[in-house]
Amino acid sequence: VFDFVDGGSFDEITTRRNRQAFEDMELRPHVLAGLADVDVSTSVLGQPLAIPVMASPTGLTGLVHPEGEAGVARGLHAAGSIYVLSASASYSLEEVASGAPGPNWFQLYMWRDRGFVAELLQRAQASGYRALVITVDVPMAGSRERDIRNGFSVPPRVTAKALAQGLTHPRWSTGFLRTPHMTFGNTAGRPVPEGTGLTPTEYVNSLFDPTVGWDDVERIRGLWNGPLVIKGIMRADDAVRAVRAGADAVIVSNHGGRQLDTAWASVSALPSVVEAVGQQTEVYLDSGVRRGTDVLKALALGANACLVGRPPVYGLAAGGTAGVARVMEILAKELRVAMTLSGCASVADITGDLLVAEQMTELMSRQQ
Ligand SMILES: Cc1cc2nc3c(=O)[nH]c(=O)nc-3n(C[C@H](O)[C@H](O)[C@H](O)COP(=O)(O)O)c2cc1C
Q1: What does the pLDDT read at residue 295?
Q2: Could you tell which of 150, 310, 331 is best to mutate to test the pocket of ligand 1, judged by most ligand atoms within 8 Å of the CB?
Q3: Is 288 near ligand 1, meaning CB less than 6 Å away?
Q4: Strand, helix or coil at 6?
Q5: Which residues lie closer than 8 Å to 127 by C-beta, 6 or more apart?
Q6: Burial of 365 by CB count in 10 Å (0-12 exposed, 13-18 middle, 19+ buried)?
Q7: What is the pLDDT of residue 368?
Q8: Pocket flag, ligand 1, residue 256 (CB < 6 Å)
Q9: Closest CA relative to residue 230, chosen from 257, 245, 249, 255
Q10: How far apart are CA 352 and CA 364, in angstroms?
Q11: Measuring from atom 28 of ligand 1, which residue has the nearest CA?
Q12: How far apart are CA 121 and CA 108, in angstroms?
């Protein structure tokens, strides 16, 4: 289960690169800014955020802890932020909406069965999800080799290795046995591929539609009554197409390095997307955000907010809802420190001049 969360695709080069790109960026702080306090709040699509960090959608989070996605959502709400629930969640979207009433967005994948997609949209709208996020970087799944090596499958197969792991992790096993969430909550009762014990990659490849195109995004725009966000944009020209197809915001993301390995870091792609569409739409960034300084750097490059994928899942694993809230508290505290030490009183003060000029020029020259 840990490897399923932690892993990336193939050689995990992009997963590592997401971190490296943040680490390589140097800050140029202001001093003696005379700050009594710093304000880390902002808003996205007109909705207030106490901290400019939301939680990205993660599938099968119920495998990590019995509270599952509702626990992550509650932790985000406690931090004054928004949870993006995955269509591939362990719990159904109705269960999460009632177990974690608060600002939730819903993330959609494109199943081959378009009737099911339309039905999911209706259910999400009826349950009060405030924005729709379409993930566009999974026409098929990037191969996660840790899952293959571990024999990780959905639902999990009981192998000798799994039993041994279960015995050495009694707290996890007890929780799991009490509230088993072994498969996908939203697809209950729907036809799933024949047989059991598919790896998540096999599951995705048998159900998701590789022929998905921009016309599908336009069609869904017509079906969804609310803000639309496109997740998985890595180039300026695709960002422009997303806006033309009706997006109100885009998420620059390489799926945490779980899809196209050797793709560039999402924070490296960010400036070109901001330059192309930042005047018309909001731009968010995920993939590799771990520290307050990472959030500061993304905002300095023009992002309106960041999202974190793995960190809240680790928080959930360690302490349920409270663990997720703690992760967000740490990020808020670190951002406050980073802003104070850079002379920024509010997120509006976080501008490009905080980054070393030559690095900004180099980033921009890599964009076309
Ligand atoms: C365990 C796991 C499951 C994920 N499931 C989904 C998903 O169902 N839908 C989606 O759009 N992205 C999914 N992602 C990608 C995240 O939304 C996000 O883009 C990525 O985790 C960000 O990188 P980070 O983990 O470095 O913060 C998943 C990521 C992880 C780690």
Answers
A1: 98
A2: 310
A3: yes
A4: helix
A5: 93, 94, 97
A6: exposed
A7: 57
A8: yes
A9: 249
A10: 12
A11: 58
A12: 8
56 touches 28 (CB < 8 A): no
Q: Using CA atoms, how far apart are residues 206 and 19, in angstroms rounded to an integer?
A: 32
DSSP-based three-state secondary structure for 74: helix
Closest ligand 1 atom number to CA of residue 86:
8
The answer for residues whose C-beta is within 8 angstroms of residue 97's C-beta and 6 or more apart is 104, 127, 128, 129
The pTM of this model reads 0.97
Whether residue 180 is preceded by a cis peptide bond, meaning omega within 30 degrees of 0, is no
Give the integer Cα–Cα distance in Å for 224 and 204. 24
107 lines ligand 1 (CB under 6 A): yes
CA atoms of 257 and 260, how far apart (whole Å): 7
Indicate which atom in ligand 1 lies nearest the CA of residue 89.
8
Q: Is 8 in the pocket of ligand 1 (CB under 6 A)?
A: no
Residue 65 a catalytic site member: no
Ligand 1 geometric centre to CA of 147 (Å)? 15
Q: Where are the alpha helices (DSSP H) in 31-144?
A: 68-78, 93-99, 114-126
Cβ of 310 below 6 Å from ligand 1: yes
Structure tokens at 331: 């990020």
Mean pLDDT of residues grouped by 10 in the chain (368 residues)? 97 98 97 94 98 97 96 98 97 97 96 93 98 97 93 83 89 86 78 68 88 96 97 98 98 98 98 97 98 98 98 98 98 98 98 88 73
What pLDDT, on a 0 to 100 scale, did the predictor assign at position 193?
A: 64
